[in-house]
């Protein structure tokens, strides 16, 4: 097995029998990947619901043409549904966010906690409630309430956190929204669990809509790309999926609020770079709001979506790998990896010492003990330049692909796809037209990563010298094979660079940190890169 530069747990070994020598394609383990996660990494829905709820209608849809005329009052409860005990909360609400006449006015009553989970009059003996924030309409249109239990007590986690009273000051429609993030991209509404492990509780927010005039509002919907933007990316927003459910009615206006403090923008489509107050690109989670109005009643509809802007591609190193890898977020799996590369020619004459270089795509191996991969080899064996293709379902033995006779300059397409418990490996030599497919399985595959790698294989004695391959080109932009190098992770398909900070650029180094193979940055299509040979190593 190959060893790695850091205290990495070895994941995969590809034992490749060439003549009388056995070689292995090692893997690397990246520690503390979960520390890079954001709140949107997992596709699972939190079990906790945080809801703005009206007790009169027993709903978050506070719509009535008779109950709420101007001059009337109503209340909303901020309710929590969660089986776990909680120790405190800090919740911010926005209201009157329709860019029109204000029709609601929040009122500070002093009894916001009465009857709720944090009611100071019903705490257990020896405990008390400390109100940290009670800001009503500071600034106008915003509410912030925060409270904690002192004395080691907790609330049961199911019920009302606090209640807000509103005066109705006009006719129309408005919203009362839970503020997810601030302009710096950080979480602003938080709920914390009880001791001993006090930690943030993930939640699913449910906002409220208020309307006291007749009419059916439009439905606001938008998409954006790239799906996994990184700091500095231009994000394209498209609101054309919005619609009015009334036949013949249309959307008359669009307004975009990007959640980073920038000026709201109008129009069905927008492009935006998320920035800090001094206009430098920034990473974080930004609540993007789109409001639409219908053409008949001028009623608003809106949607809030948290856009995760990551810091960018991570950098790491390995004793045997160079290229790119994607680490799947917890709760997601990799189901497809597609790659292409041009088989590089050995540079110069082969010497007396055997040297090897391998180029492949695969699933697993980055942080797991299984690997499913296939690729080509450019090697010097007994003084002769040698080229061939191979595949492996580790820990089963590797196999040479006889159907494809890889030659320098050939364009190779390779894919590893997982479905219904099986892996389907495909390779096509686009230059010769020859192809290969293989179905197989491994025990307990993790499906935790995707890779596009140039590698120095290993023998029984360790990593062998890296054959001078000059450079190797990967991806649709360089070899010219569309749809590569792409992966499907958590049901989302895209090129390498579209997966944000789940992506790692890997440099191959010797134990003394001398660079052996260096990957380039990704090209503008986010799929393509070149790995350049630097040194054979020892």
Describe how the helices and strands are arranged:
Blueprint: E1 16-18, E2 21-23, E3 49-53, E4 61-63, E5 73-81, E6 86-95, E7 104-107, E8 128-136, E9 142-150, E10 158-168, E11 173-178, E12 190-193, E13 204-206, E14 208-211, E15 223-225, E16 235-238, E17 251-257, E18 265-266, E19 269-272, E20 284-294, E21 300-309, E22 314-318, E23 321-327, E24 334-342, E25 355-363, E26 371-381, E27 384-394, E28 399-401, E29 411-419, E30 422-429, E31 435-440, E32 449-455, E33 458-459, E34 462-463, E35 471-474, E36 486-489, E37 492-495, E38 503-509, E39 515-519, E40 529-533
Parallel strand pairs: 3-13, 4-14, 22-38
Antiparallel strand pairs: 1-2, 3-5, 5-10, 6-9, 6-11, 6-12, 7-10, 8-9, 11-14, 15-16, 16-19, 17-18, 17-20, 20-21, 23-32, 23-38, 24-29, 24-36, 25-26, 25-32, 26-27, 27-28, 29-30, 30-31, 33-34, 35-40, 36-37, 38-39, 39-40
Describe it for me?
- The chain has 538 residues and is mainly beta.
- The protein folds into 3 domains: 220 residues, Jelly Rolls (Sandwich); 169 residues, Immunoglobulin-like (Sandwich), CATH 2.60.40.680; 96 residues, Immunoglobulins (Immunoglobulin-like).
- It is 0% helix and 45% strand.
- The protein contains no helices and 40 strands.
- Strands 22, 23, 25, 26, 27, 28, 32, 35, 38, 39 and 40 form an 11-stranded mixed sheet that branches.
- Strand 29 and strand 30 form a beta hairpin.
- The radius of gyration is 29 Å and the shape is elongated.
- It starts with 15 loop residues before the first strand and ends in a 5-residue tail after the last strand.
- The N terminus is likely disordered.
